[in-house]
Amino acid sequence: MWGNQVPPHPLHEARMRDVGMREPHPHVTAFPRHRVPASHMSQILILMAKQPAAGQTKTRLCPPLSQAQAAQLYAGMLRDTLALAHHVPGVQPAIAVNPAGAEGYFAELAPDALLFPQGPGDLAQRLAHVTGAAFASGARAVAALSSDVPMLPVVYLRQAFALLAQYDCVLGPCEDGGYYLAALRQPAPTLFTKVTMSTPNVLRDTMAEAERLGLRVALLPACYDVDTPADLARLCADPAPMPATRAALEALGDTVA
């Protein structure tokens, strides 16, 4: 998600042993018809998403993909990651919308999800804005999730919210040195804005800022995200269900063979 390569990290607090098991996420591409009860909206899981468009999404996969194919693949990944978000009990799914004006697309894609504009600025500013808006809406626990991890075991998301009962911040390390998830139980805008994104040190620097803020941090198991042709090859071989992603890969045929 938000980094480039894996640094060794002497990270403090807990890497939870009991979330190391891989739990396949549900074989679903449709979302529940009914909104999570208002009593559960104190926990919000926000998907950082972009409307699929040729030349605007997953351009680092070109080549081997064309720009249109990259957008097609991202659309499948987006659906599967949304499906994950809809299978975390007691949590309200939400989408951080990008670009402005894409609300109609996302409202049709996930009619029960809350929609938050990502706002202007770089990724760090948008993460700070979106998580702050979720807390301002009344949430007591907020997690921001990458849309590049359709293979993620849903148990990791469930564990993230469970850990917030004991920790102030939960991070899901990405194998490129960033993270695929950041969960908080209080606003902490500088956790994002004091960190230079898209570097190999995103996770390390985020941990340092959390320590400066006095936040107790727990770590989920690491996962890869899909940014590069090497990641694409790994995705093709991944046994995780991700039905919409799988359908998009099959449609690409020999391009990803």
Number of domains: 1
Q: What's the number of helices?
A: 8
- CATH superfamily membership, which one? Spore Coat Polysaccharide Biosynthesis Protein SpsA, Chain A
The stretches of 5 or more residues where confidence is low (pLDDT under 50) are: 4-39
Decide which structural class fits the backbone. Answer: alpha/beta
As for the CATH topology, it is Spore Coat Polysaccharide Biosynthesis Protein SpsA, Chain A
Report how far apart the termini are: 24 Å
Overall CATH architecture: Alpha-Beta Complex
Order of helix and strand elements from N to C terminus: EEHEHEHEHEEHHEHH
Shape: globular
Helix content: 25-40%
What does this structure look like?
By secondary structure, this protein is an alpha/beta fold. It has one domain: Spore Coat Polysaccharide Biosynthesis Protein SpsA, Chain A (Alpha-Beta Complex), CATH 3.90.550. The chain is built from eight helices and eight strands. The chain has helices spanning 67-85, 103-109, 123-136, 154-163, 190-193, 202-213, 229-237, 243-252; strands at 14-15, 43-48, 92-97, 114-117, 141-146, 169-173, 179-184, 217-219. It has an eight-stranded mixed beta sheet with strand order 1-8-6-7-5-2-3-4, sandwiched between helices. The two termini are 24 Å apart.
